[in-house]
Amino acid sequence: MMKEFKKKIKGLLNDRLSEYGFQPKQDWFNTRLVDDNVFQIIDYGTASRGEKHVIYISMSVGVTYKNVNKYTIICNDYNYVKLHAAMVGKTLGELLPQKEYKSWRFALGDNDDVIQQNVDEMVNLVVQYGFPYLQKLLDVDFLIEKMYKYRTLIPIFYYLYGRKEQALEYIDNVIKELSSRPAMDEDYRAIMELYGIEPEVTVDSRELEVYMPFVERFRKLVNEKG
Question: For tag attachment on the chain, is the N or C end more exposed, with fewer CB atoms within 10 Å?
């Protein structure tokens, strides 16, 4: 029963979002292609929260750039387009004026009017608050500013949009940061110092080891293309 109920809700969402050019993809995704390069993505989170015959649905919006995706496949073995995954995005709740976690509750016993009302509210809010954010993400400078933690994506964006030196400098800075990251927990360090014991500082190299394969592939690609 719940499987058909979820299918019904998703069908209603698909119908409303098709008015804005969004097409349904596998599972809980809707996408539309912009400028032959940028996919705008609406992603859904679903949960029951322990309630029987109930589904809570949340929404996120984001973008993926096809030209950047070609490099993530080569450098990072990750295909955003195939997975319908956003390179950068936010939950709808983060974009609302009150910035709250936002989800909608659908119960198997709800009548059609209640279900449609929820769907309409979801779509109206994503149009009002999600679409303007998606439009801003078409500005690469704005997008990079929002990608501060994506160590593999930022240098690719820099490189593809004419900032090769900045891309290489960014990678060097990440390597320096990860090369000096202490393995010791800060609370443990404080306790050691409290008792007058000089803590032995070691470097946590795990993140660096994960990052370096990307660096090697990216540098090779950049050098080959000049």
Answer: C
